[in-house]
Every structure is written in structure tokens, then in C-alpha cells.
Amino acid sequence: MTDLAWIDAAITAARPQALAALLRYFRNLDVAEEAFQEACLRALSNWPANGPPRDPASWLIFVARNCALDEARRSKRHEALPDESVLSDTSDAETSLVDRLDNAHYRDDILRLLFICCHPDLPATQQIALALRIVSGLSVAEIARAFLVSESAMEQRITRAKRRIGAGEVSFETPGAPERHERLETVAAMIYLLFNEGYSASAGEVHVRVPLCEEAIRLARLLLRLFPGEPEIMGLTALLLLQHSRVAARLDGNGNIVLLDDQDRRLWNRELIAEGHALIDKALRHWRPGPYQIQAAIAGVHSHAARAEDTDWAEIDQLYGVLEKLQPSPVVTLNRAVALSKVRGPAAALELIAPLETQLANYFHFFGVRGAFLVQLGRIDEAQVDFDRAISLAHTAAEAAHIRMHIDRLMKDSASAQRASA
Amino acid sequence: MLYAILCYNSEQVVGNWSEEKDRAVMAHHTGVVQKLAVVGKIGPVARLMPTTTATTVRAGRQPIVIDGPFAETKEQLLGFYIVECATLEEVIDIAGELAHEPGAVEIRPVQYFSDPSNPARALSEDDAAAVSSQSATRGSP
Fold first, then answer.
1. Residues B57, B138: Cα–Cα separation, whole Å
2. Residue A401 covered by a domain
């Protein structure tokens, strides 16, 4: 079966490894990308005729390397390529790459490829766009659609970001353990951001962008395959799988947000949940808790409850308590307050978040959550003020609509209360 | 004679299948299984979770637990068990007991399970794990 779909899937799967190896070889991203493109074109004509190679990544690397070297010799554009003496590994250019790919060496190549997309000078959205373009191989048009900007704007953004990272110095030496760990952490954070960008879009009419979430999960799995013994990477992957398992239930037919409590849990993807739990189990054995593992555990508690009222809120409250210690942040405390309100009531929760107002003065969720606590306490007028504030801070149409629904409910309730008392 | 049929493919390629493609593949398999069930020729069927969920237990005086799938190529798949356990710890204990000859056993959670030969055994969601054993083929054929 060498149909186009198979070739497409094989090339997509091989891309990070192949491009990462070519980058180490040529030490120039543009040259590496061009060589990879050329190899893909040859794969399209070669594979249907000769059958698929046993190891598509090795095939693509080998062909891409030869293409680029041929091209350089033929066109005498020697300046386009680094001098032969600068190129690493020229000695084994003729030997089979399969042996070398078998050793775990290439994992540092892929980590480097991901890491250069996370240049600290680049804003988060540009890091994500770059990773989608370079590592995932999405077209500029696809990325532009995901970010809801025009293709030319995205083209510009990526070109600028590339120029920025081109000037930066990324070591091509094999990283030492501390450096590797640091890279891993940076890359994990970028994958987390990528997922969040899809899970809760930062702007626009569409609130959930599934392709971004799926791409983040793919990259997390890739990272976990390279570093199978890292509990935080297990935690990250589990977290993304568990969050994504609820995608079909998070929006209703009109694209409105459905809160966790109100979701139809039969729509949750049991396969993703089971995989997430399997990874949490593995991570737990290491006794090295970290923020991703704790967040995954929290998502795991929700996924265990067949009905919203079965949720073990005390357990969630405790887990948020651990997360607060590991990674103190007002947003974490805000989330803990939601759990606390279920365990000890809205008054306790309100008290917990009272000191956060100045820090979260521009945070949509703060006012949405506080408004909900105030409603539960019957302080309707104050709730109304918070909901109005939340609408003014909403990033997406769905966020604003969700709060408006709360307000409508308040209006209806107070109207019927007035009627009842009249 | 009982036969086991083991399915191989590139996990990364399969992981890049679209949902429709995945469904179509599963539908094809289900079709074959149903045909075989009618003539009583089919036993338990399982689809394993990705190798990222795998744990390997190496035999030794004290079995060694390693994250990730069994990756050596000089050893071959010689057999497998399906066990039902509440925790990963429990499976690891069982795996350690099974791995008493040199070699290794790999633990893989099962994603999909059906047993048309035993209708009493309903589809199980996340409570079964496959333990496959790879041991050196040195010695006995």
C-alpha cells in the first residue's frame, strides 16, 4: 500500500527526525529545509514505483543530503553551503545512515530543532508558529488559518522569526545533562502553549482550534518517545490527552462554551482518557512530582467522575495546593478557589481570591469565577458588575457569549423572583 | 492448532492517520473478526496503546523496570499474556515474576479489547494490559 495518504503520513512522521539530522549536517535551516523538500519530491515519484522504504526517515535524510551536495557542486554556489571542512560527518556520507539513526543520538538533533524554535527573543505565538512551520511542516496557509491572520501576514511573521533565530547561536555539540534538561523544559513549555492556543484560542470567533491541539499532542508524544524516562514529559502528554479527551463536549451545537459541570460526559473520548491515565501511572512511579504531572492528575480526577456531582473536589483542592507550592501563581490559586467552593462553599473561596484582584485585574476568568461565587451567595448586583467586567476582557466570541448567558440567567431569575413576590 | 497473529506497522505513521482513516482500518478489522466469530475461529482481539505508554521489565536477580518499549533487536517476541490489574505496580509485580529467564517482558496497556469467543467477557476499557515476553532465543529452538 503505497498510496498518497500513506506517503503523506510517512513524510509527516519522518519530518522532525530527517530535518533535525539535516540541520546538524548543514548547520543552516534554509539549506536543510530545501534539501528535505527535494527529497520529498523524489519520494513522491520513487516510492509508488519501488515500494516504500523500510525506514522512510533514513531514506529522506540520505537522498536530501545527496541532493543538496549535488546541487552545490553543479551550480558552483559554494557560498550557499558552508565549506566542506566545516560540514560535520562528511566522512560517513557514503555509509548507511540506518546504523547511526539506530543509536539514540538523533534525539538530541530533534530536541535542538525544537529548541531553536523557542528562541527567548521571540514572543510565544511566534515560537509556536515557527515550530508548526519547521517541525510539524504545516503550510503557511494552514498556520495562518489556525491563527486567523492573513497568509501574507503569517509569511512575514515566520520569515522575521526565522531571521531572528538564524542570528542566534545554538550549539551543535552534543548537549550535557543540565543543558539537555533545560532544553527539554523550554520545549515542553512551548508545546504546552501550542496546546493552549488551540484549547482556548487567544482571539477570534473560533474558541477551540482542534488541529493545534492535535499537533501539540503529536509533538508531546514525539518528545516522550525520545525521552521515555522523564516523568514531566509523561505528565505533559497525559495532561494534553486528558484535556483533549473532552473536546467534543466543550462546545454546544452553536459553538457556545459548555462548562465541565454541564458537559455530556458520554462525549468524552475514553481512549484518550485511558492513555492519559496509563501515563500518569508511569510518572507516579518516579516520585518526582512536577507541575505537568499535578495538572494531569487534576484532569485525571475529573475524568474518573461519571457525573459532575461525583467529582472528588477535596482531592482536586489538595492537588491544587501542591501545584501552588511547586509553581505559585494567582491563576493556580484562582483554580483552587473553584475546588474550594465545592468543598467549603463560596464564602471560603471568595476569601481565598480576595487578595488576587490587583494581580488579575485584566484576567477574564477572574471576574467570571468571582461573579459565579457572588451569585451563589446571592450578591446579585456585585455579580453583575463582575460579569460586565469579564465581557469587556473576553478574548473570543465564545467567552463573551458564555458570560452573557450567565447574565441572562441572572436577569431571568431576578425577574421571576420579582413576579413571585408581587 | 492455536495461532497468534501479531500486527506490525510504523507507530508514527499510524499516529498520523486521520480519524476517518483510523476508523476505516478498525472497521476492516472488525469485519474480519465478525466473519471469523460466526465460524468460531476467533479468540481475544486487542489493540495496544502507543509505545509511549510501555514499561519494560528486564529479568535479573532483582528485575529492572525501564520506561519505554522493549527495543532490542537480538531478541524476538515469544509469547504474550493478557492480564487484568488495578494498578501498574500490580502488573510490574506479575511481569517480574514471569521474567525469570534471561530476557525481558514489556507491559503495554490495551486500548481496545474484545473476545468474541467468550461473550461473558465484555469490552474492557482501561483495566487490561498486555504483557509480552521477549527472551533470547539461544538454547531451545
1. 19
2. yes
